[in-house]
């Protein structure tokens, strides 16, 4: 009995989010046959891992997927969650992406002349593979969470929906990156007692000198800044994003103002005692000061640009703290005695590349690459933060990266066939 060969594709794109779809579009315009395997549905993360009041923190005009720029009536507004999902789904239809939803890729390994992939629908082979799955794969919750009392509800930020979904009582939010700060604000506005555990995330002004700060930063070329030119180099990939919000038309997030209004702030979580008390580092003041320093540094950058370009703009200024931690700032919190009913872990994600059985990772498990091109010929990564620039992990920059990789994939396939013509084979 002869076994039928596995279906073959010139290119397999793993992941049907905005990165995978942008890659699909760039392959299509080059005449390269391919398939996109999406484990869930197009727009899955936007649909299922964002809370009800979630909005983009970047203006709608930055939604620049290749060949599908934002064309709505509010370019300087901020799309809410459901509109983001609709935008991504509309893009998939617009480019007629060959997406196979509900197909999980469980292993990628070398094969003669290319790669063998195991999927939930069977085996396939490919000449090239693009990993467009981002880097946020599994919720990161510290093991110390196991010491909290069993009666306290614990949810990761990706599972938080609204204040009403949590039991009555105070809520601890661990983490002051974008998600943590916005969820803390959501709970605060709903009238809940909130304890926010801070970290070193920086913050950014929403509007400064008459324009959204994103507009100014775009004029300054910040979203095109390559990782090699950043002062931290590749280390910036491990840094938290600036916190601000697009909610209510967009505004700053000022943790000091929240504190003045009754929110309790703490330093970084240092652990949980066996009895369930959370312990914090004595770094709250440093965390707040560091975030404000970045905020004011962005204002200074914009000021210099305005002065050098001779732009007529309203006067600027600097943020002055509206609240300071007390000298005897608490360094622990007995959650049971404080009426805490829930903890939201806004502590990020862990990357899980275990399905990729190829030698392309560094000692920390991060894929080694140069602008998305890995050391394994025919394997590419796309959609990672700071893949090439600050805009790489965003709607504004993923298309530029996909265009670059489209040329790289075309060159790889042409070299395999010994031709300069793009590949037009289909499965």
UniProtKB/TrEMBL annotation:
Pfam families attached to this UniProt entry: Pyr_redox_3
One GO molecular-function entry: monooxygenase activity
Taxonomic superkingdom: Bacteria
Oxidoreductase recorded as keyword: yes
Gene3D superfamilies associated with the record: FAD/NAD(P)-binding domain
Keywords of the record: Oxidoreductase
Protein name (Swiss-Prot/TrEMBL): MSMEG_0569 family flavin-dependent oxidoreductase
């Amino acid at each position: 009995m002869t076994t039928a060969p596995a279906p073959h594709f010139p290119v397999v794109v793993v992941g049907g989010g905005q990165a995978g779809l942008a890659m699909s579009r760039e392959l299509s315009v080059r005449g390269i046959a391919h398939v996109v395997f999406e484990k869930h549905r197009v727009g899955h993360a936007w649909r299922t891992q964002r809370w009800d009041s979630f909005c983009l923190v970047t203006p709608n005009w930055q939604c620049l997927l290749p060949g599908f720029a934002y064309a709505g009536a509010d370019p300087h507004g901020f799309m809410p969650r459901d509109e983001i999902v609709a935008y991504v789904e509309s893009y998939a239809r617009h480019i007629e992406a060959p997406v196979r939803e509900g197909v999980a890729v469980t292993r990628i390994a070398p094969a003669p002349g290319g790669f063998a992939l195991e999927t939930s629908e069977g085996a396939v082979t490919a000449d090239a593979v693009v990993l467009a799955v981002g880097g946020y794969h599994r919720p990161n919750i510290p093991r110390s969470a196991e010491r909290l009392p069993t009666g306290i509800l614990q949810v990761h930020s990706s599972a938080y929906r609204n204040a009403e979904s949590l039991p009555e009582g105070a809520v601890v939010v661990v983490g002051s990156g974008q998600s943590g700060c916005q969820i803390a604000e959501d709970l605060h506005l709903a009238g809940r007692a909130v304890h926010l555990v801070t970290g070193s995330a920086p913050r950014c002004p929403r509007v400064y000198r008459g324009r959204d700060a994103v507009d100014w930063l775009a004029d300054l070329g910040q979203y095109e800044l390559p990782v090699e030119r950043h002062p931290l180099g590749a280390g910036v990939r491990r840094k938290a994003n600036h916190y601000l919000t697009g909610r209510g038309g967009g505004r700053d997030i000022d943790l000091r103002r929240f504190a003045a209004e009754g929110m309790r702030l703490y330093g970084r979580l240092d652990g949980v005692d066996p009895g369930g008390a959370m312990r914090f580092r004595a770094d709250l003041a440093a965390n707040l000061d560091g975030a404000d320093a970045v905020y004011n540094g962005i204002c200074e950058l914009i000021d210099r640009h305005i002065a050098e370009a001779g732009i007529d703009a309203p006067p600027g200024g600097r943020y002055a703290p509206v609240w300071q931690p007390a000298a005897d700032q608490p360094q622990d919190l007995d959650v049971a005695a404080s009426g805490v009913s829930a903890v939201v872990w806004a502590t990020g994600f862990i990357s899980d590349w275990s399905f990729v059985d190829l030698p392309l990772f560094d000692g920390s498990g991060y894929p080694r690459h140069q602008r998305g091109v890995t050391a394994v010929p025919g394997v590419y990564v796309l959609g990672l933060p700071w893949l090439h620039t600050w805009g790489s992990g965003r709607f504004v920059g993923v298309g530029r990266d996909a265009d670059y990789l489209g040329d790289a994939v075309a060159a790889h396939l042409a070299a395999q066939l010994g031709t300069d013509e793009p590949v037009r084979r289909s499965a």
